[in-house]
Structure formats: structure tokens, C-alpha cells
Amino acid sequence: MVRMTKRCQFILVDGHKCNRAYTTSMVRNQQKYCEDHLARQGDHSGLVRSTNAHTIEGNKAKMREWVADKMRSELKDEEYLQKLELRLERLEEIIERQNKSIKKQIDAYFKDLMDNHTDVKTERLEKMIRTINNRVNKIIIEMEELE
Prior knowledge:
Helix content is 65%, strand content 5%. The chain has 3 helices and 2 strands, in the order E-E-H-H-H. The longest helix is centred in the middle third of the chain and has 63 residues, at 53-115. The radius of gyration is 34 Å and the shape is elongated.
């Protein structure tokens, strides 16, 4: 059997040929591409078109492996989504609790404001409102980080 060295004729993105050397078993072999570029031609699945029984069995094994990989990745994706949903629910509960406590504090501040119009009380109320505002800003930042 004669071994012949040929050059890959695959056209790269920049428009040039690959020109990688590869060997074939015969002079009249129709192969034009090196091993790296054979799978990129036509079918990207790596399956071989042939009526040979061994090739068909090899294709079946590749297909089974591909389906198993897809199933594993779907399970991982589902688990990840479930974790995200739980995290989102916890954050929503935290936000609800914070909103309730903020509303109570604001109501108390306004009640205090209406009862007493002194400067000391207003300074104290302004300080409390600023702290509430800072808490709300922190919650908003945390929500934006999750998105």
C-alpha cells in the first residue's frame, strides 16, 4: 500500500488554505482535508454517512452518548433554576419584611412629626429617614446584583 502526503484544502476564515500536511493510504484517495477539518465539512455532528454495519453501530453509540450528555446538562440546568427560584423567594420575603418594618417606622415618624414640631424632633426624624433610605438603597443594589 502506498502512503501519500497531501495538503489540507480547507479554507480558513481569513481566506487562506489550511495547508496542513496529512497522509492518505492511496494516491487516488478523494480526501481533501486534514483530520481536524474532516468533521467540519457538511455534518457538524461527527457522524459518518455510510451503509457499513460497523459505521452505523458507531454512529448509534455517538448518538446515545450525545443524548445522555444533553439529558445530564438539562438536569444540571433544572437544579440551577430551582436554586435560583428558592433564592429569589427568600429575597422577596426579606424585602416584604423590610417594607413592613419601614412602613411602621415611617408611620411612627410622621405621627411624631405631627405631634411635635420642634427642631430636635425633626432632626431626629430626618436622621431616621436617611437610615431607612440607606437600607432601601442597599436592598435595591442587592436585587440588581442578582439580575
